[in-house]
């Protein structure tokens, strides 16, 4: 609070208060512009990891549908976790299944779906866990970007908690790792990506 000199008239005191409020509002406006710029940069930086997360959440939900439609959604979104920009059509399931890079259990799941067969609940859970394991690079990138933008916001005098939120913060990674370990124990010959 500024001290008002005794020699100021009431009009000068009022003008001084108006100028202080104006300066405070200008600073708030500058911070709002900085916050908007930071948020836009952050959203652009995590666009692909966020798309992978959204695909993973669809994989997780689709696995619980226990239907042919759910299986198609599960497999389609599984591929989008790997490549968020990909377009996966049902006719491509067989081609994907025949590529040598997929674990056998996943390739079999694609073959079954292409033939109109339902996946088993274990196959669905294996796909969910494989999707989670393949989500790790997106999690790492989002964490890296969150750390960078948090530091930049603080440097610019902007509160990072009012600017952006890491969309992966609510994932329970320990629980997901435990589920993958349980599946590996149940099916020792099945290939499920390991945590790195």
Salient structural properties:
196 residues, single chain
Structure summarized in a few sentences:
The protein is an all-alpha fold. Helix content is 68%, strand content 0%. It is elongated and about 90 Å long.
The mean pLDDT is: 80
Rg, Cα atoms, Å? 26 Å
Task: Please count the helical segments.
Answer: 7
Structural class: mainly alpha
What profile does the largest beta sheet have? none
Quaternary organisation = single chain
Description of the molecule:
- The protein has 196 residues and is an all-alpha fold.
- The protein is built from seven helices and no strands.
- It has helices at residues 10-45, 47-63, 68-82, 93-97, 104-114, 121-155, 173-186.
- The model has no long low-confidence stretch (mean pLDDT 80).
Describe the secondary-structure layout:
Blueprint: H1 10-45, H2 47-63, H3 68-82, H4 93-97, H5 104-114, H6 121-155, H7 173-186
Helix pairs in contact: 1-6, 2-3, 2-6, 3-6, 6-7
């Amino acid at each position: 609070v500024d001290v008002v000199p005794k020699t100021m008239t009431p009009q000068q005191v009022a003008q001084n208060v108006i100028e202080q409020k104006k300066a405070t509002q200008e600073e708030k406006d500058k911070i709002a512009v900085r916050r908007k710029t930071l948020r836009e940069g952050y959203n652009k930086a995590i666009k692909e990891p966020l798309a992978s997360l959204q695909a993973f959440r669809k994989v997780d939900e689709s696995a619980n549908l226990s239907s042919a439609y759910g299986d198609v959604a599960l497999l389609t979104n599984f591929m989008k976790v790997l490549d968020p920009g990909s377009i996966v059509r049902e006719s491509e399931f067989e081609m994907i299944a025949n590529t040598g890079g997929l674990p056998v259990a996943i390739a079999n799941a694609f073959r079954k779906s292409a033939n109109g067969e339902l996946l088993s609940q274990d196959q669905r859970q294996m796909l969910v866990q494989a999707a989670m394991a393949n989500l790790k690079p997106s999690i790492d990138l989002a964490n890296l970007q969150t750390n960078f933008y948090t530091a930049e916001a603080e440097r610019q005098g902007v509160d990072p908690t009012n600017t952006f939120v890491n969309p992966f913060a609510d994932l329970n990674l320990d629980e997901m790792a435990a589920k993958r370990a349980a599946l590996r124990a149940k099916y020792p010959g099945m290939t499920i990506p390991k945590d790195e």
